[in-house]
Amino acid sequence: MTGESFRTSTIRRHLYGATGLALLIALYLLTGLTGHDPWRGDDARHFGPILEMLQGNHLLFPAIAGQPETDFPPLYYWTGAAFARLLAPFLPMHDGARLATTLFTALAIFWIARAATRLYGRETRTPAALLTLGTLGLVLHAHETQPMIALMAMQALTLAGLSHIPTRPVLGGVQAGLGAALAFLAGGLPGIVLTLPLFLVVIACSPEWRSPRASSGLIIGLSLAIGASALWPLVLHYQSPDLLALWWRAEWRNLWAEAMSGSELTRLVELIGWFAWPLWPITLWSLWRTRRHLLRASSLLPIAALVLTLVWIILNGSLSPASMLPLVPPLALLAASGIPTLRRGAANAFDWFGIMTFGVFAILVWIAWSAQVFLWPPGLARHLVRVAPDFALRAPEISAITGIVIVTVWVLLMLRLPRSPNRAPANWALGMTMLWCLAIALLKPWFDHDRSYRPAATSLKIALAGEREDCVAMMGLSASQRASFHYFADIRPERVVNNETQCGFLLVFDDRGSTQKPAQEWQQIWEFRRGGGRQREIFRLYRRD
Which stretches are transmembrane (predicted)? Predict the structure, then answer.
């Protein structure tokens, strides 16, 4: 072998080996994470508690613009505030805080791969990481400020720890106990529901966990999980018992909300169908292949985690995509176990379906970019103009060149991908990374224009600049809007209680043509309109006459 061919072979081996996988994960996680405002929805909403902590307020209990928020305990918000503070010289606060999602997503991928290695062998480690990366429903949440990602990561840590107990009981028990405790600190009672029952299920149903050594590891893990989980509520009880009572009532109410009806179950199946693609088809194959050995540790543990997650989703009644994130670790484990046994025809079909799917999605992204630049196709162009009439794409040639480079690299990597059982998962991970990078290169200016409340908040701040200082009450504002006005305009909208407020100003939000009119004592002094059609939003500011 010549020197040049040896170097080429070495580069190829690293590119399609562990080094290439690490680079792919880094590219996937870091692309599009920074360089844009907090977008409406969860991204802005969950930045609100981080902003409060950065200002030295509500360090123990999350709050948005001064109002307590009971959705999540503070683990994710602490991490986001630490990143924002650490990277303050280099990144805006919202960009630095969003790196908490990168950390927890990377930890989730790592622990899913570790659990797959311990349960099924080293040949499933890479497929587990690639399949997690290629999951359709993960990509958006992995690039926004999203506490549910932290819960998913701690669920994966618990699974990795429990999978280690038969061989390393003490180490596995400590990992599992720490994962369950942090799952509680990340997600509250849902974190307990998704992790602690796994300890009891495996020791009751699987012979591999009934040995004295394994049982001692489970006892250590349970003790650590229960003891560490009690720390935050105890501290909160001594600091602010009212907030603890508020949190407990909300947690208990939300945990056992109305169960899903028949029509909602149909919608849940549809949601899981696209969110968990391509995990669930391979999971079904894996379950069929191991149907006679479901009580083995390798099958029982992820199946139990999957059943617990589905039961929690159904009883909780939530149909938000973020609520589906805890499905990813158990499905990725089961799917990874089935990859080495896929028949050649099924593997090839899975491979080609991934290539065609992401090829079609890439064409759709280019069509959306064309509608912005060339006003073609005309129907889509008219819709974009109606939704955001004041949007203008700057330097489209730069985005076009970047997009061409992204697609070209994807095609070259795809064509030279080695033949192996990991080829299909690798194509899904490559395709998902390509699609996300392409969407960021071509469409990020549009999303930043359409989903940021910075213009509205800046305009409101100017409107209030000449007025006397007084509090601002609110009607109809969502949590993400309150967080955005707090961040961009330094305004903390206060709630209207019993249709009364002592504030001298009232901020009203009208959505999709609904009009909320205050009493005649209020005089309108400012209005801001954004979007159009179904996306139209109107903010009005009133002053007490």
Answer: 15-33, 99-120, 126-142, 178-205, 217-238, 271-288, 300-318, 324-342, 349-371, 391-415, 427-447
Quick: pLDDT tens for 516-543.
678 788 999 999 988 777 778 899 999 9
Instruction: Give the pLDDT mean for 231-245.
Output: 95
CA gap 212, 218 in Å, rounded? 10
Helices 479-489 and 454-465: angle between axes, nearest 10 degrees:
60
Do 541 and 526 form a contact (C-beta atoms < 8 A)? yes
Question: In terms of pLDDT, which residue wins out, 257 or 464?
Answer: 464
Judge whether 98 and 105 are in contact, CB under 8 Å.
no
Cα gap 133→114, rounded to integer Å: 15
The amino acid at residue 97 is A
Q: What is the mean pLDDT of residues 464-482?
A: 88
Average pLDDT (356-385) is 93
Look up residue 157 and give its two tokens: 């840590």
Q: Which residue pairs from 368-372 have beta carbons closer than 8 angstroms and sit at least 24 positions apart in sequence? A: 368/442, 368/443, 368/446, 369/396, 369/399, 369/400, 369/403, 369/442, 369/443, 372/396, 372/446
H helices of 297-422, in order, are 297-316, 328-338, 344-373, 378-387, 396-415
Cα separation, 2 vs 462, in Å, equals 69
CA atoms of 477 and 475, how far apart (whole Å): 6
User: Could you give the CA distance from residue 28 to residue 260 in angstroms, rounded to a whole number?
Assistant: 34
End-to-end CA distance of the chain: 88
Token pair of 212, please?
């004295």
Rounded to 5 degrees, what are φ and ψ at 538?
Answer: -130, 130
pLDDT per position as a tens digit, 293-348: 887 888 999 999 999 999 999 998 888 999 999 999 999 999 999 999 888 888 88
**pLDDT band at residue 6 using 50, 70 and 90 as cut-offs:** very low
Place of tokens 């920074």: 34
Looking up tokens 């889509």, which residue turns up?
A: 380
- State the helix-helix crossing angle for 75-86 and 93-120, rounded to 10 degrees: 120
User: Which residue in 410, 415, 477 sits closest to 439, CA to CA?
Assistant: 410
Do residues 54 and 84 make contact, with C-beta atoms less than 8 angstroms apart? yes
CB 452 within 8 A of CB 35: no
Among 515, 517, 519, CA closest to 529: 515
Tokens for 310, please give them: 């589905």
Cβ–Cβ < 8 Å for 49, 57: no
The CA distance from 147 to 141, in Å, is 9
- pLDDT at 2 > cutoff 70: no
Residue 16 CA to residue 19 CA, distance in Å, equals 7
CA-wise closest residue to 15 among 25, 6, 24, 28: 24
* Model pLDDT for residues 257-300, shown as the tens digit of each residue: 677 887 889 999 999 999 999 999 999 999 999 888 887 888 99
Average pLDDT of the chain to the nearest whole number? 91
Is the pTM higher than 0.85? The answer reads yes
Q: What is the DSSP letter of 340?
A: G
Name residues whose C-beta falls within 8 Å of residue 140's C-beta, 6 or more positions apart in sequence.
321
Residue 73 pLDDT > 50, yes or no?
A: yes
